[in-house]
Amino acid sequence: MMVFFSNLHANNILVSNVSLVNRNTNADYVFVKFNISWENSFRISSGAANWDAAWIFVKYKIGDNGEWNHATLNTSGHTIPSNGSSTQNDATGIFLFRNADGNGTFSLNSVQLRWNYGADGVLDDAKIYVKVFAIEMVYIPEGSFQLGSGSQTEAGFRIANDVSSTGTATTYTITGSAPTLQGNNAASSASNLSNQYGIALDLGQTTNTATLANGYPTGFSAFYCMKYEITQGQYRDFLNTLTYNQQSARTTIAPNSGIGYGALVSLGTNRNGIAIQIDGTSTGNTFPAVYGCDLSGNAIFDEADDGEWIACNYLSWDDVAAFLDWAALRPITELEYEKIGRGTNSPVENEYSWGNTTILGLASLLNNNQVSEISNTSNANAVFESNFYSGPVRVGIFATATSNRTSSGSSYYGVMDMTGNVWEQVIKIENSTGRSFTGAFGNGKLATNGNANTANWPTYTGACKRGGSWATQVFYIQLSSRYGATLNGLNRDSETGGRGGR
């Protein structure tokens, strides 16, 4: 077995020294060995009582011109260093995290994951290439929480018989029982879920009811959420494991358009810097393009100032769903979106994802396009309209060693940038397409046409946008605002990205 490896890094996370060790040719397995470290890691026993983690998965290809595939990991028998812990739902990947309370940079050396290469059809004498991917995640514990902030101006969730347009709206509590949806009028049941004016709820002003699919993630059960929005570096890495036809579906500009052409939009537009580094070929022997980041526009790719840590905009719903399926994650729902932001705290009217109404928009930057890109606006904690007109910024930009929840723009559980930057694309409850979602995890594979192929994942009509963007007005970015719940990601635009969970 001849093996070639790639080291990868995302926002403050680095996978290095990848190798294959202790191969067993009788049982056809081998251990994928690597080091991993990431900044701003945490684990706490009080308050939110949660931790962050790295979601690890492995891709491989056979031969120089083979297609990248998702590796099947064993569900036990891995070697995890003593300062780390792990959990695993299935054979597509594994969560690694601290085994004790702490914060700051966290490292695990000589992690060994058992890859059952025989189950993937890989022969002992194959020439293979291996990549280890890592995505920072945050654990969201099981528990009840409230939907809606009580505001009359955000079209947020409320109990179904609260038809008043004055005073404080009555928030709805999510428990272990899935809510019944109902139109909001005086005859509606106080035990059911609705929202003011019927906005983004197809039941409107009626007594009709609807239910969620079995398994629909309401936010009550524990889950993991990506700590940051999908970055341009992550989307680049995703594109570089696809076939030519799959790349064609997940980009705007054809993979054979020429070196330097932007993948999703003209290079540099609204701070998107993903471009063709090596041209693909679409005739004869078809080869995919190689993509890189070049926000500096100097035709030298993946330099320190090429923007790979900036949130990726110009992502449609199909783009986000494909990325999540490829990574063996899943979309999150708009109910989970509010759980992530609010946690177990009581709602504050018109609050942002950090739990209050204190907000100051970023107006300018230092260290543009770099991993050290920071706000040049004192006390800024969000990116939204009227302050910054260029595009999204580096994910987690407001978090520092001394920042608190408000100044860092953090959610209750430590998830970043849920207010502003780029729209979050989430599964809605407005229609039967969204309500049919069962919470199934992605399988690490895409259809040959480049689309997600996991069963019961809705099309764009079952998804919506929450949290606003760098270009939206302030009332769109409030945590419980559902004014974006009528928007969908059919088309790519400068304001829209996404993140997922598991």
| CA distance, first residue to last residue | 33 Å
Describe the biggest sheet?
7 strands, mixed
**Which segments are poorly predicted (pLDDT under 50) over 5 or more consecutive residues?**
none
Q: What does the overall shape look like?
A: globular
Number of spatially distinct domains: 3
Helical/strand content category: mainly beta
Overview of this structure, please?
By secondary structure, this protein is mainly beta. It folds into 3 domains: 2-139, Immunoglobulin-like, CATH 2.60.40; 141-231 and 309-502, no CATH class; 232-293, no CATH class. Helices cover 8% and strands 25% of the residues. The protein contains 6 helices and 23 strands. The strands form 8 sheets. Strands 1, 5, 6, 7, 8, 10 and 17 form a 7-stranded mixed β-sheet that branches. Strands 2-3-4-9 form a 4-stranded antiparallel β-sheet, with helices on one face. β7 (84-87) and β8 form a beta hairpin.
Summarize the structure in short.
With 502 residues, the protein is mainly β.
